[in-house]
Batch of 2 targets.
Target 1
Amino acid sequence: MRDEVKQRIEETVKANKVVVFIKGSKSFPQCGFSARVIDLLKKTGAPFVDVNVLTDPELREGIKEYASWPTIPQLYVDGEFVGGCDIVTDMAQSGELAKLIAG
Amino acid sequence: MTRKARIEQRLRDALTPVVLDVLDESSMHSVPRDAETHFRVTVVAAAFEGKPLVTRHRLVYAALDDELAAGLHALTITSRSPSEWEASQSTVASPPCRGGSK
């Protein structure tokens, strides 16, 4: 990954409390896994920033390297990688997601 | 050998699971039925005991890195320790497709 891409990711996840990298957008997710994470985040009622990886092939590959995580979506809270769709689903069910985002 | 069989073998070798279920869900997505791109795995292994979900998923991904590099596109993962599995045998369901697997 080019330094510039890494820097852009870093800036995005540090400048915003909750950031989700998805395929498509918040209002029109183009993948079921991304759609589920958006849905769960919306249910928390907290603001979050979405980044569409489909518009930038370098970002789409770079984000996988950044988190050492081979799939998308990816959720970041307070600059830290939280997980993908299954983990966010699990955390939403246990109430952990709302706590993490509110904290 | 199908990708399903390779995934089973790699997870068995890496994690010696007590329960292992691998499902090819590619036909549920916007890819050819035999694409072998979307899978759902349930792994119950002592190796997961006391480990956070991110670590468990990374163990699964690591075991399948060559498959991920060769076209395995999506994995729904249920990872439980044997004691958690005994308490609840619920698994994570895959979400419906939105057509974006390109």
Target 2
Amino acid sequence: MRLIKIIGEWLDARLQVGATITETAEHRIPRQTASWFYVFGSAAFVVFMLQIVTGILLAFIYVPSAGEAWNSLQTLNHQVSLGWFIRALHGWGSDFMVAIVLIHMVQVFLFGAYKYPRELTWIVGIFLLIVTLGMAFTGQVLRFDQDAYWGLGIGASIASRVPVMGPSIVNLMLGGPIIAGATLSRFFALHVFIVPGLLIALVSVHLLMVIKLGINEWPMPGRLVRKATYIKEYHELVKKDGIRFFPDGMGKDLLFDGFILLSIAACAIYFGPFGPSGPPNPTIIQTVPRPDFFFLWLYAVLSFLPPSMETPALLIGPVVAIIWLLVMPFVFGEGEKSWRRRPVAVLTILLVAVALATFTRLALHTPWSPIMDAWSGIPIPSDFLHNRTALERQGALVFQVKQCHNCHSLDDQGGKRGPALDAVAVRLTQDQLIRQVIQGGGNMPAYGKNLSPAETTALVAFLESLHPAGQAPARDAARAIALAPDAAAPASGHP
Amino acid sequence: MTLPTDLGRRDLFMKIGIFLNGIVGVVLAVPVVRYLLSPVAHERKGSYDSWVSLGDLGQFPSGQTRLATYRNPTVSPTDGDTADIACWVRNVDGQNFQVFAINCAHLGCPVRWFPQSSLFMCPCHGGVYYQDGARASGPPERGLFEYHYKVENGNLLIKSGEMPTPGQASNIVREIRPCV
């Protein structure tokens, strides 16, 4: 022990940081901030450390070459001892990271911590969020499988829509004309050098300000923030009711951080690493590309936006949102901090949370995608063929062969792109069915050119039979009259 | 050995030092910026596109749409499989062809051809196109991208090299208006 003390003193005489470190570690925080609500910032930091360590370990084996990346991931998964585990830690770490960063942001927002004097901390935090999402995107590209390849194409297509500069931005992003070796190399440089450098710099500034300005005190309804008096009030609070961060106030942080690391490890062990899915060969077109978990909401939004609205929404929406987030501390820099007195804040968070959750849930099973092999792989349930005439059964065959099943479901099997057809005969009359099949409409293409009259007749006969047992199919009320022979014409005054 | 002369010399060194480093900075910045912007400059100077052969005409029977693959003309040694590009070749009537890019005109996912219903379907967001490439339904705002083509010595060639995107219209033959 005495030797350690001697070495410690020898080092400190030269480094002279001992006093600073002790003072920082033992700085006083308001007692109430040693709370479970305040643990998410340190959790994000700890997950960042995990990502750096696992990332460096992965870089020992991973080859950032378009031709070899996929193979090197196979090596990691199957040949290197516990390579799959390190990959899994890194992948699950990234999902947890985005989630924790978002929860931290929501907590900071609801506790009014962006108000005076912590506006710059908030602004740096917004940039940290953007940069973290940048790490998420570049990271999933590095997996360089089919999802990554086509995901890059989607990113390039979005970037190309920027007016005037779009095509140049695409060339810069891809490092050339197509998604190839140059693309992976620059995404590697981004993910390993440029963006982590930015992250380290921004996190340092963020933490520096948290320590210098003090952690946000527990918001009390009725205790307003006023620029003239806040700093003095804060110091008095810390003096009156403060505890040392180390060793008294960081217990919950330690516990939660350990718990998060354990959770990531548990997910890594139980669920294993993410892919890679198929090799990034562009000629393999039997593929259904999907982004990683944190971008699933965007996947859903891009499917549901009306086509003409898409470019403005994509290019203007995020810019407006980010500018608003950056400007917010100056608009609402004073006043109530507690969420109990800020209903608009709470409602906004609820709205955003519900929207994100809904879109993510939708993107998990993609109802808008045709099921490409339904026409050949999912038979028509036998209930719909039972007691049918030969013509109707022929129609069922047409239904399969013309890929109707890809977009329409029967008995909940088949595509969900179009409406389920189990009871279509109750909704559409025979004429309407014929028109819909031939001319299309809404999101349905016209099949008129690809169906012979015989096929149309058979198909519509089958569709006409799709109604619940006790219910008659829809009928056009005037049809009987329109089709009746002329003998039924009224007696008076018709030539 | 008066004080002002000493300071005057140090002051001069400082000024020259800053000036010199400024020049060095600019001189170094130019190649660095050119390096960073080289993918864009290459595109501006001479397009990435050139004529590529898709093979013998016999592979593309009349009235059918077939998948063809080619090696991208701009290729680097580390590209591996990513430089193999696919496209859909439609032989309209034996004389005229249409060669569609594999990329959906919405966000670039690979479209699949179904000969039974004569439709191209995209798996990502549900875009659908008719056999002539016109938009049928879904999020795409336009029809499929088409390559310029020519027939030489019984081979079908297309002018390609750059991945088509909604903002990059350089390699389309004609804008296909959606059916309304």
